[in-house]
Amino acid sequence: MKLWSLLGNSQKLDGGAMFGNVPRAMWSKWVAVDADNRIDLACRALLAEGVNGKRVLFETGIGAFFEPKLKARFGVVEDRHVLLDSLAEAGFSDADVDVVVLSHLHFDHAGGLLAPWADGQPPRLLFPNARFVVSHACFERAQHPHARDRASFIAELPGLLEASGRLELVDDNYCATLGEAVRFHYSDGHTPGLMLSEIVGPNGQGGVVFCADLIPGAPWVHLPVTMGYDRYPEMLIDEKRAFLTDMRARGVRLYFTHDTGCAMAAVAMDEAGRFSASDPQAALTNFALAA
């Protein structure tokens, strides 16, 4: 099995919102911050070749679907659809992807499903040959969002996914399309039904798990660090503790979507029981993963 880390469109968001109740005096030592209190965020996808005989893309980033006013409001940096460029650099196009797995349907994780914004044109799905794998709970949340997170969803996206005839909703640890090659873990602290995809290694050991917004990047591996965007920070911390304990015990590496400098890392624990990221890798290019 081969893996590629693929960058999508990047964002600049408020650092305080990204680090929840962590004081700026602390988080500003971990990441660079600009004069507007914003930090740089990646929207990194993971492409895997040979997953149950399929080419699978885990997430699509934010994409370029926003109209100019909203693009500026949400800090989207590039004008072009960067993920399509990254796929091309790896030797693929969106039409070559067999399956797209989405941890949830917030726009910074699913917006890349859509073609770039064009004046007067309605939203349009890319990835014409792919099945779209989403958890039942995440899909329901996108259809009926809470007032607190309504702005995080793309109103037209659930209807487009259903109309494609290629939507697969799951609420189990495995799905029909990917079989036992990918195991799903679930979290509710950030959004209901957040789905964390583990590409399973031999005998359940090794492998890689897409951490999505349970752990957006290396600084968030530390248990107390959460986001202001999380629904239930205490629940998320408990979920993260169990998740990291499991991944460390089985040697599963963590894959980060929002960390600008680290795509993948192992889980470490010090003598005090504090989790951290170790053996960081900035990017994956045709990376061989034992299957």
List keywords for this structure.
Metallo-beta-lactamase, Chain A, alpha/beta, 25% strand, six-stranded mixed sheet, 291 residues, 15 strands
Q: SSE order, as H and E?
A: EEHHEEEHHEHEHHEEEEHEEEE
Second-tier CATH architecture: 4-Layer Sandwich
Number of helices: 8
What's the N-to-C terminus distance?
Answer: 6 Å
Largest sheet: 7 strands, mixed
The CATH superfamily is Ribonuclease Z/Hydroxyacylglutathione hydrolase-like
Structural class per helix/strand content?
alpha/beta
Describe the strand arrangement of the main beta sheet, using strand numbers: 8-7-6-5-4-1-15
The CATH topology is Metallo-beta-lactamase, Chain A
Q: How would you state the average pLDDT, rounded? A: 97
Q: Segments where pLDDT lies below 50 for 5+ residues?
A: none
Rg estimate, integer Å: 18 Å
Q: Total domains, how many?
A: 1
CATH class descriptor name: Alpha Beta
- Number of E strands: 15
Quaternary structure: single chain
Provide the helix percentage.
10-25%
Instruction: Specify the overall morphology.
Output: globular
Strand content: 15-25%
Provide an overview of this structure.
This protein has 291 residues and is an alpha/beta fold. The chain has one domain (2-288): Metallo-beta-lactamase, Chain A, CATH 3.60.15. It is built from 8 helices and 15 strands. The chain has helices at residues 15-18, 24-27, 68-73, 82-89, 107-110, 136-143, 157-164, 233-250, and strands at 2-7, 11-14, 38-41, 44-51, 54-58, 99-101, 131-135, 167-170, 182-187, 194-199, 208-210, 253-255, 264-269, 275-281, 287-288. The protein has a 7-stranded mixed sheet with strand order 8-7-6-5-4-1-15. The chain has a 6-stranded mixed sheet with strand order 9-10-11-12-13-14, with helices on one face. The chain is globular, with a radius of gyration of 18 Å. The model has no long low-confidence stretch (mean pLDDT 97).
